[in-house]
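Methods — Computational structure assignment.
A single polypeptide chain was analysed. Its primary sequence is given first, followed by the predicted tertiary structure written as structure tokens.
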Amino acid sequence: QLQLVESRGGVVQPGGSLRLSCAASGLSLDRYAVAWFRQVPGRERDWVSCISSNPNDSYYTRSVKGRFTISRDNAKNTVDLQMNSLKPEDTAVYYCAADLYSNVCIRLGVGDDVRAIQLVKASWGQGTQVTVSS
């Protein structure tokens, strides 16, 4: 059984950087598509980024494109999210999720306009708080 644990988030000043790590135990994470989502109180959980088993196949929601980078470290069995140029609107609880039925990111949208990521059978981490504030 796959278990996911996100690294501790924290408080960062606007313009700062933070790296989140999603560590897996039980199964090899490189077999699955892995996505990062975030959620603020009173709103739905929104996707942020997704990476397929092929590390060259990755996607970002429009608001983080060019600032966030998702990557795999198969030796450590992790998927990381490097967040740069953070903004107050990035404040949220961040979750990682692996799609146990797919090794590719299932994208909803047309062409490069990815509107959402669909997880067929998701295994979720417990979430970690990221606060961007001066």
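Note: The radius of gyration is 14 Å.
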